[in-house]
Task: structure prediction
Amino acid sequence: MSKIGRNDPCWCGSGVKYKKCHLDFDRQISRYRDMGAEVPTRGMIKTPAQIAGIRESAKINIAVLDYVAAHIQAGVTTEEIDQWVYQETVKRGGLPAPLHYEGYPKSVCTSIDNVVCHGIPSPDRVLKEGDIVNVDCSTQLNGYFSDSSRMFCIGEVSPEKKRLVEITKQSLSVGLEKVRPWGFLGDMGSAINEFAQANGYSVVRDIGGHGIGLAFHEDPWVSYVASPGTEMLMAPGLCFTIEPMINMGTYEIEEDEEDGWTIYTADGQPSAQWEIQVVVTEDGYEILSY
Ligand code: MF3
Ligand code: CO
Result:
């Protein structure tokens, strides 16, 4: 940490004197660090101006998913969903963050049934009655990133799959109850894990959520199986995703060796995921994207 005078401008770029801005915040961070807690770096703490930029990006992200929600149905290919996402994002001035990200070939991920995440849209995959599909949408606008995903049930879906989708959605609310300033990410992760297990499901351990804002994926990595009081301190301004992948059977997963992206459940049973993006505030949280 650089030395900064009480009357100097704050490091966050607000233009306000340090003593009136992040001085108390830094003291609080130091206190937790001295106690051995994992604390965020300054770069992970978003300023009000940055949060405003992320919010604008997220408005597009939400609108694109609303568009998908209004049009998705049996007979549509996942390739068509990809085209919708590209067109609806660009039309609003944004760019789909997944496109060409680390070589990813499409604008969105579409993950059906036993696909846990990172399913690649294809003209050969036609949605059919009974499918459960996750559409994971991420947007960049003016250098600000947003990321959220929703599940869709295509036509009549088996009661077992419908319940998996519903419980996974509810797990977000269960996790959100633990998001508060000066709590820990592990409080949230453990609440989600306990809820999923109590309902007879398992939570994927090897893939988690992430910090986000000025890049698509930032630190911290976010686990949904962690223990209370562990993982990173939730300081105001920390912006991250809550995106548990919940499996009907084992939490074990396998990567597609051919495409290098698609993640399957190891036992072939269904998996569901919902994703929201939140920022920790002075008195709780704000949901930026959903
Ligand atoms: N949207 C996914 C997430 O929640 C990331 C997808 S990376 C991609 O983190 F390249 F596959 F798009
Ligand atoms: Co994400």
Observations:
- The pocket of MF3 (ligand 1) is lined by residues 98, 101-102, 104, 109, 118, 136, 138, 147, 210, 241, 243, 275 (CB under 6 Å).
- The chain has one domain: 18-289.
